[in-house]
Amino acid sequence: MGSTRVTAAANGAAYNASHHIDVYVNVNYGTKEAAPMNLLEQQLHYPLGDTLPAAGTALEVAPGVRWIRMSLPFALDHINLWLLRDELDGPDGKVQGWTVVDCCITRDEAKAQWEQIFATQLEGLPILRIIVTHMHPDHIGLAHWLCERWNAPLWISSTDYHTALIASQSTTGFGGEDTARFFASHGLADPESLDKIRGRTRYYPGMVPDVPRRFHRLMDGQTVRIGGQAWRCISGYGHAPEHMALSCEALKVLISGDMVLPRISTNVAVYDGEPEADSLKLFLDSIDKFRHLDADTLTLPSHGKPFRGLHTRIDQLHDHHRERLAEVLQACTEKPGSAADMLPVLFKRPLDLHQTTFAMGESVAHLHALWFANLLQRTLEADGVYRFSARPA
Ligand SMILES: [Zn+2]
Asked: How many A from CA of 240 to the centre of ligand 1?
């Protein structure tokens, strides 16, 4: 899309400023929906305009599909959750109720918002099932509480279930000594940043203190019947271990989770637990799986507003990363560089300590994409830092 490339470049500053680092990074992401649309968003269509569900209410966006928006105490200040009218087989015939998609983090404010939903929005019916798109804290945090309160099962991919189970019981994975060592090996030298990462040992369990003891496994291509409609699971990689989006072709609705967001780009990073991951390739390959969906599909993202223009958005995301990759390749061709050296190339504005530590994961992901594509070579230098340089011709 030639025209997209031009506008993307013209809009580079605004686009970069909104680069998505999920809840793990508070890169200054403009979440205020009243903020003017950026140029790329103007190519999408928001059928509800600026309408948002009021706090504690659910807004119908498609037949039997309702939108709940809960606040988050981060720069990324909200998450969208979905309430789907459902009926399941019970011992005495059909049981009417609701399936919930995603949960918010564990904190009192979120529980209070859920209580308000239970009291006023469920039409007196129970929650029958909790589906979680992936293991990040804003999505799975309250699953244990919802499942217990409603005696309802958790449906999730096996990979994300087990990763969440381990992360909720451990002090590593999203902080701590191993993470600090990993980023140091990618050139992060600032002692204050490294100390901050070392000290972050309760990050995940702080928001996900527990996960349910058992789960129902979701797999790619599987059909889940919800309220008489067939919803198909579409797996996605590069953002979470095994993210599940849900597509209802009859309704032309896609619950995209964090895989396709309208205003910000999905966080794609490499972490110390899988230090040689090619996350960016996995992510770009994954979003192409949504291309076969109807062009008119209403996409329900976890952050931002429901939108049409799924195919345009997929093109925009490819353009965005292609441009970032070209810049990183150029920089490493001029002079061998580490992931830390690439931060000013990828994020063209000052990053605070907190942002820097997490932007590192994104930087490694871009270098790895070029390394695995054989466009860069990697060298572990005498100072213990990986540097990437152009392959000799
Ligand atoms: Zn996420």
From this structure: 6
